[in-house]
């Protein structure tokens, strides 16, 4: 990941979209992380009725949308990248009309289509932006969801900071540009008009990733 890497434009590249899953989740470590993250998603949505419509944004190639569809939910896959959604549509064809792709920007949707869905999933995006942008993004997600909002973050604790430092010394690129502390998480939630209900860690010793289940204030 280069310093000038821009997540807003990077994934609009068709070649990037086509190789995304293969590059990240084909190796053993990627397959293990994929399984652990999907398990965390299933747990996070454990109390959400199967009749709910869930907006997955950004949907990307539909990796986590697939897990929700397998649980019986109707999923609106929202992404700013038409290239990523095209991959998702191919992958999720078997679910028919239960998967609804929608190319769009979350801030525009918050203004034009508030209460678009019952519940929203916002995964693997917030940690790419500074806290102020995270608050704005999550606030827009909250506006399009009538109920629960589930989002992922990278938590910064002394142990995880040590772990990140060791990985960087070994030449590994950081998985998140802006992991947050507990105090910053509280600021993020309050700024988005949400409160935490529960959280699910992906793998406490192996990953800084977690999913937070939140409700409107």
Tell me what the structure shows:
By secondary structure, the protein is α/β, with parallel strands linked by helices. It has a single domain (7-216), classed as Rossmann fold. The chain has 9 helices and 7 strands; from the N terminus they run αααβαβαβαβαβααββ. The protein has a 7-stranded mixed beta sheet, with helices on both faces. Strand 1, helix 4 and strand 2 form a beta-alpha-beta unit. Helix 6 packs parallel to helix 7 (131-144) and helix 7 (131-144) packs across helix 9. The chain is globular, with a radius of gyration of 16 Å. It starts with 6 loop residues before the first helix and ends with a strand. The model has no long low-confidence stretch (mean pLDDT 89).
Q: Which key phrases capture this entry?
A:
single chain; 217 residues; alpha/beta; Rossmann fold; seven-stranded mixed β-sheet; 9 helices; 7 strands; globular
């Amino acid at each position: 990941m280069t310093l000038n890497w821009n997540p807003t434009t990077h994934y609009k590249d068709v070649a990037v979209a086509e190789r995304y899953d293969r590059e990240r989740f084909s190796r053993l470590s990627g397959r293990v992380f994929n399984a652990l993250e999907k398990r965390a998603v299933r747990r996070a949505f454990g109390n959400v009725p199967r009749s709910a419509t869930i907006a997955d944004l950004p949907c990307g190639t539909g990796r986590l949308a697939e897990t929700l569809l397998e649980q019986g939910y109707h999923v609106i896959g929202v992404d700013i990248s038409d290239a990523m959604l095209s991959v998702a549509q191919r992958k999720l064809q078997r679910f028919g009309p239960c998967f609804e792709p929608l190319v769009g920007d979350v801030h525009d949707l918050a203004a034009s289509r508030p209460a678009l869905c019952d519940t929203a999933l916002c995964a693997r995006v917030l940690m790419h932006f500074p806290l102020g942008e995270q608050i704005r993004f999550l606030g827009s997600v909250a506006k399009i969801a009538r109920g629960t909002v589930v989002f992922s973050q990278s938590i910064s604790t002394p142990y995880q900071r040590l772990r990140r430092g060791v990985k960087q010394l070994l030449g590994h690129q950081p998985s998140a540009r802006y992991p947050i502390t507990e105090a910053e998480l509280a600021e993020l939630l309050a700024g988005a008009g949400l409160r935490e209900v529960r959280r699910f860690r992906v793998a406490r010793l192996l990953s800084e990733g977690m999913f937070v289940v939140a409700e409107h204030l």
